[in-house]
């Protein structure tokens, strides 16, 4: 039962497995079969039995199916056999028809092949045309590039290259000719860079050679503009200015002429105005700049341009060694510099970034320092004031020209103030020669006037006013000599010359006025004063000339106020607003006058010494001649004539000269008596000497120069008079008794002087006694006198010793 139950349980399982095998894909039947072996041990056998049973069932079904369809199969075979005959006939017909079709289609095939071949050719032609249409623009652009290169249109060529690279080459990049073109473009770019750089070098060399012409044109235009402006300003000053002193040069007519000339020059040059573009072709710079910009190498071009221009700047700023010798040397130097910076200014304004304002400012500051150093060095060699003035005008024009282009030039005007000092020095040296020539040509005598015309000529040259002289009838004389109006005129010429330098310095009228006054003060206090002092000290200048020099300096001193008015007028400064330096003419001419007075005193004393040296006394004479010595009378006559000339001098000068002469004469006579080489003097010689002193006293009492009070002039001989009276009267007892008393008769006689002269007289007496010893009756008197002299000598020596001990 159990086995039966077990067998019943496996049958459905085997059926399920068989269903799976029948319904499952053959590749997946493996796991199903494996389940058969995984079951109970006898399951395999049972499954095989079940499988055989299933196969038998299927065979039975197939047999039933075949039996059902067998008659239909037989009928179908019979019909096929019948169709076979018809099929063979049909085959023959089809074969025949096929053969006929093949024979007929051979021509069609040939024609079809021709058509296909033509279609292929047509397609190829179309493709070629399309490709050629694509390549032709490239070839045309490349041809255009070649033409541009040949025509030196390099900027356009670079643009064409850009179009080729960006637009055309990408379309035909697969072709070999395109690769060749692409490989050739860098070489063309390098060629363009080299050619444009060569053009730039030629341009730089050209502007280096023509910079002086550029600068000359720029400076000429600046000069024309300045001339026109100055003429207008002068016309305005003439219309609104003040009247100028009658001695001064009135510039109204000259200003009108200058204005007219300025207008004429402006009209003539209006059509001739050239710009820097007219003189220089800047296209190489623009072309090169554009080329390098397109090539993306603009920085290289800028650096090269600036480097080369800096080198040129150094060359331009290097002056010639002999530049200071002529004004043309300075002009060439300035025109080259102006030309250089005019070009740089043009490049600055017409290009973007090639040069910058910072670069030009740096270059100008470097150049300005060099220019100032060069001008300072070379101008120091200039000794001609005209050359220095022309240099100043060139510097002003140079500065005004560059200032018009925006370059700062204040340092140049500061330099002009330094050069102005040098200009004044050269003027002072020149005028020193002028003054020396005037003094050498002067005759040092009052200017004679014979008629009204001559009088007006002198008045027009020198501001002299003297009502008394005007009232005198012709002929008459001006008190000063011819040198006075000449010096006055030359001082004014110096002021004009100094004014020429001060003009165009962009300074106010007050500053110019102050500069003129300072320059004039230097002329008066240094140059003219030095020339006067040298003139006064010259050996050939006599007393008469010295007197005239004093008179001349007096009138020149009085004319200084007219010079101040003259300076005020030419600078258009109102008298009420002037707070500037005064002229030092007062002190200058006063010092010269004092020097001349001192020289008068010295020369007068020298002349007195010359006369005194002519004295030829016989110091051993026994009796006087009874009249004064000849040399002394000549000296007195000379003094009388000289003091008559002194009447034109100020009173104190004449009195001082007269007193000095008398004192010097007295001293000289005293020294003659006390000369150590003179060993003995006779009483006859003393008496003769006394006669000469009497003549001197008579001269002093005759008042040779008015203004002395009482016997003031005679006091110059008081020492001699008291000494001679002591010996003539032989009043030794009174002298010795009253010595030291304020009321002493011989108060001015020094014991040492008296002793010296007494010893000489004593020796003379001894010598006379020896010669006259044959006369016995005189021996006793001589012995008594000698004893008296010895006694007096002893007393005098005691006085002298007492004085020395007291001292």
UniProtKB/TrEMBL annotation:
<dbReference type="InterPro" id="IPR042044">
    <property type="entry name" value="EXOC6PINT-1/Sec15/Tip20_C_dom2"/>
</dbReference>
<protein>
    <recommendedName>
        <fullName>Exocyst complex component</fullName>
    </recommendedName>
</protein>
<dbReference type="GO" id="GO:0005886">
    <property type="term" value="C:plasma membrane"/>
</dbReference>
<dbReference type="Pfam" id="PF04091">
    <property type="entry name" value="Sec15_C"/>
</dbReference>
<dbReference type="InterPro" id="IPR042045">
    <property type="entry name" value="EXOC6/Sec15_C_dom1"/>
</dbReference>
<comment type="similarity">
    <text>Belongs to the SEC15 family.</text>
</comment>
<comment type="function">
    <text>Component of the exocyst complex involved in the docking of exocytic vesicles with fusion sites on the plasma membrane.</text>
</comment>
<dbReference type="InterPro" id="IPR007225">
    <property type="entry name" value="EXOC6/Sec15"/>
</dbReference>
<dbReference type="GO" id="GO:0006886">
    <property type="term" value="P:intracellular protein transport"/>
</dbReference>
<dbReference type="InterPro" id="IPR046361">
    <property type="entry name" value="EXOC6/Sec15_C"/>
</dbReference>
<keyword id="KW-0813">Transport</keyword>
<dbReference type="Pfam" id="PF20651">
    <property type="entry name" value="EXOC6_Sec15_N"/>
</dbReference>
<keyword id="KW-0268">Exocytosis</keyword>
<feature type="domain" description="Exocyst complex subunit EXOC6/Sec15 C-terminal">
    <location>
        <begin position="412"/>
        <end position="760"/>
    </location>
</feature>
<dbReference type="InterPro" id="IPR048359">
    <property type="entry name" value="EXOC6_Sec15_N"/>
</dbReference>
<dbReference type="GO" id="GO:0090522">
    <property type="term" value="P:vesicle tethering involved in exocytosis"/>
</dbReference>
<feature type="domain" description="Exocyst complex component EXOC6/Sec15 N-terminal">
    <location>
        <begin position="50"/>
        <end position="219"/>
    </location>
</feature>
<dbReference type="GO" id="GO:0000145">
    <property type="term" value="C:exocyst"/>
</dbReference>
<dbReference type="GO" id="GO:0006893">
    <property type="term" value="P:Golgi to plasma membrane transport"/>
</dbReference>
